Amino acid sequence: MGPLFPQGIISEPVNHLIAVFIGLIFGFFLEASGFTNTRKLAGVFYGYDFVVLKVFFTAAVTSALGLFLMNYYGLIDIKLTFYPATFWLPTLVGGIIMALGFIVGGFCPGTSFCAASTGKIDGMVFVGGVFLGILGYSFTYKALFEKLRNSGNIGQVNIADWLGISEGLFLFLLTTVAIAAFIFVTWLQNKLNSKKDPQFLQDLGV
Amino acid sequence: MNYKMIIMKKNEIILLGFLFLLAFWSLFLPKKVWVYHQIPAKELHYELTKNDKFISVEDVAQAIIEKRTDLILIDVRDTSQYKAFTLPGALNITYDSLLFKTDNIAHNPDLIKVLFSNGNTLAQQCWFMAKRANLKNIYIMDGGLNAWFDNILNPQPPQQPYSNEQDRLYQRRKGLSTYFVGSKNAPSTPTTNKNAIPVQQIKKKESKLGGCS
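Output (structure tokens, whole complex):
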């Protein structure tokens, strides 16, 4: 059955319309979960709020399990979905830059747009920075980044194949690790916060 | 360890429990291998409108005689019909198992697959399904076994008036027929077709000696 667009089941305008609806729901829940608050987002680095880690782990496991099961039961042909090659070196460098930006700015690109749309000035400034970064990268790509961008290509990597285990076993291990991390950060959060003055957290807006 | 510290909210426990159940379920599912990947409708339409999906019975007969290893003949009819009569060396992959058995030879992209049935209809339906499933190098024997009987096993001389091309085709069919049914259909000496359009040979003009022409 799926994916719908690559197989021509839905047209491009309908595809865009669905994207808009998914974007609306995504933005709504980001705001509802407090993801437009820089203090909450940065909390994962300081140890007083691990909601970011919990959300990202849950999202990764849910989508991995969902795709695996839907592929197995014939609802989606996973080979037709966008499956880019892995360039490990630029991904590593980009990840470090992203993490630095996350700590310093308190947003990731998606949450900054959410924050900007709710009228937060720090969100708007962050979005401005995102655009400047994109333009800067585009104009200096040939001179500075082209070599890095194309280095470390290891092709399309499937971790389960790479480890030599079945996809089901890999998913089970991933879910177990995620649940263990979930329990660990809950313990860590409760431990760290019990030592702090509740007023301190209230001042942070958490 | 203070266990009070790891008490989670009720909805978090429900969510994690649900994910764990799904993961446990996935553990016992084997890797799904899709039998085929569909091609987009536009590409399929392009393939349908192209006229190169047919291979003539004469070319198929030639391939059988030459014992080509890069070409396989697939009889898509029922097994009972296959057992009654088929082409030399043809495999029987019925229309209902063409797509759904991934280990069958029809899924080998390097081989030229020629589908045939009694006429064109069933083979064309199979070709369409196979194309939709993105199988490569797949063709139809034009006219099916009916054309095989008419043109290879029992070739008839073309009716008057006929062109040189029709005559050459008839001679070729008779030659091929010899291989399959014996010498009774051996090609005769080329017939002279009185009604064929004579080929006019252009004579080179004799150059005159001297002077300007």
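Chain B is about 40% helix and 10% strand.
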